[in-house]
Specification:
heterodimer; A: about 375 residues; alpha+beta; Butyryl-Coa Dehydrogenase, subunit A, domain 1; Butyryl-CoA Dehydrogenase, subunit A, domain 3; 4-stranded antiparallel β-sheet; globular; B: about 80 residues; mainly alpha; Non-ribosomal Peptide Synthetase Peptidyl Carrier Protein, Chain A; about 45% helix
């Protein structure tokens, strides 16, 4: 049971409250109980996308006219907080699905939107975001995958690595160089010339079903391009990653909350030196740090959410700030929770060691902590007139 | 003027000409294009679509003013 101070203190807009309550109930009923098993097995249940789609969780950023059940940014964040506290791998898979759906909703042609979005909202088509390559991470403009003009369409060559949900996704948003410019393409699973190689579960987000994609003369029609030539990074990928960072920020808030709940539960029940360890001041110090970080991370995420809600361009940096702080705080909370639980926290199957491993990955995905620092520092310097 | 004010945050004391290539003077990062689109949409009440994403529409203050005018007049 959650502590009162660990509950989300900010109510979402009134018309979204029931939706949020239903999503929270679903997450607690269907996702949290399976999280440790998914982590151990390194995979998600096969039926998960359609189940989530049935409950509207695959259409959170899909317009109503395309079969979606969209929510405002604050409600979106609070749903991701709950997902992050329950199963960070499920949250990661849903986030990349949303990144693809949002990119299609924003930049695709009406035909592409009608083709993909209703199926994505139902969870029948799961999206995955394919930017990272074996030799290209933070320096995204250096992508090597190439889309060469061939007849009326393109032929793709190259590889993508660490693709979340790559093992199970039905549709890939792929970034490739076209006419030497970064360009986005929508490529369905099963396209000849595309082979998908599952990757072994990594340190954290073990159930995120990572895969490597290989394109070898993968021929696609011109109509599969998403947005114009050259818009792939600055517009399509940038907006998708911006949403991804927002989801990660809130997911980290959830992770911190889960760590705090586990640590305080243990501190109340574990007796050492004849008293519950909550009475030891050094333990109180650790809990205080987590509690403060939780409040701070949530406030930063809320601030970003409010700016996003109004379409304010400052929401972009506010999201970087929230993601940076929340990921760092989640890592700290994971370490602290394991420390307070001691050997129990290190044991296989203990949720807190999962939280710690998942938090480490949060510091890397959707822009590493160091990349966020560069963005935040650049913005701060610009605001002070130094650049 | 609103566009110039917004760009001033990124370009500091540098005096941009109306026809100067804002991507060519080296002050912007990978988030800038997204921030610029959000600013134009919020400030001028238009929606930038994929048909508008040509770099030519955002290359200079003058080009952005033309895009905004075109979108506002339904073009």
């Amino acid at each position: 049971m959650a502590l009162p101070e660990a509950q989300s203190p900010v109510e979402p807009p009134e018309n979204q409250q029931q939706r949020l309550a239903r999503c929270r109930a679903l997450i607690e009923r269907e996702i949290r109980p399976r999280a440790d098993a998914c982590d151990a097995e390194g995979r998600l249940p096969d039926e998960l996308p359609v189940m989530l789609g049935r409950e509207g969780l695959c259409g959170l950023v899909v317009p109503e006219g395309q079969g979606g059940r969209p929510v405002d940014p604050i409600t979106y964040g609070l749903i991701h907080e709950q997902l992050g506290a329950a199963c960070a791998a499920t949250r990661a898979v849903l986030t990349v699905h949303d990144m693809v759906a949002a990119a299609i909703g924003r930049w695709a042609s009406p035909e592409q939107q009608a083709d993909w979005l209703p199926r994505m909202a139902r969870g029948e088509t799961l999206g995955a975001f394919a930017l990272t390559e074996p030799e290209v991470g933070s320096d995204a403009k250096a992508i090597r995958t190439e889309a060469v003009r061939s007849g009326d369409g393109f032929s793709l060559h190259g590889s993508k690595r660490w693709i979340t949900a790559g093992q199970i996704a039905h549709l890939f948003l792929v970034l490739a160089r076209c006419d030497e410019k970064p360009t986005a393409f929508l490529i369905p699973r099963g396209t000849p010339g595309l082979t998908i190689e599952p990757l072994a579960p990594p340190l954290g987000l073990r159930a995120a079903m990572l895969a490597e994609l290989h394109f070898a003369d993968c021929r696609i029609p011109a109509g599969w391009m998403l947005g114009p030539v050259g818009s792939g990074l600055n517009h399509v990928a940038a907006a998708a990653l911006d949403l991804g960072r927002y989801g990660v920020a809130w997911g980290c808030v959830g992770l911190i909350r889960a760590c705090l709940e586990a640590a305080t539960r243990r501190a109340r029940t574990r007796v050492q030196f004849d008293v519950p360890i909550r009475e030891h001041q050094l333990i109180q110090g650790l809990i205080a740090e987590m509690a403060v970080d939780l409040k701070a991370a949530r406030e930063l995420a809320m601030a970003a959410g409010r700016l996003r809600q109004s379409g304010d361009p400052d929401g972009v940096i506010a999201t970087c700030t929230a993601k940076y702080f929340a990921a760092r705080a989640a890592m700290h909370a994971g370490q602290t929770a394991v420390q307070i639980l001691g050997a129990e926290g290190c044991a296989a199957g203990s949720p807190v060691q999962r939280y710690l491993r998942d938090a480490k990955v949060m510091e890397i995905i959707e822009g590493s902590n160091q990349l966020q620092q560069v963005m935040i520092a650049t913005d701060a310097l610009q605001r002070q007139g130094r650049l | 003027m609103k566009i110039r004010d917004f760009l001033g945050r990124f370009f500091g004391d540098y005096q941009l000409r109306d026809d100067e290539d804002i991507f060519g003077v080296g002050f912007v990062n990978s988030l800038f294009a997204m921030q610029l689109v959000l600013f134009i949409e919020k400030e001028f009440g238009i929606t930038v679509g994929n048909e508008d994403l040509s770099l030519a529409n955002f290359r200079s203050i003058g080009a952005m003013a033309e895009l905004i005018e075109r979108k506002r007049s339904g073009g």
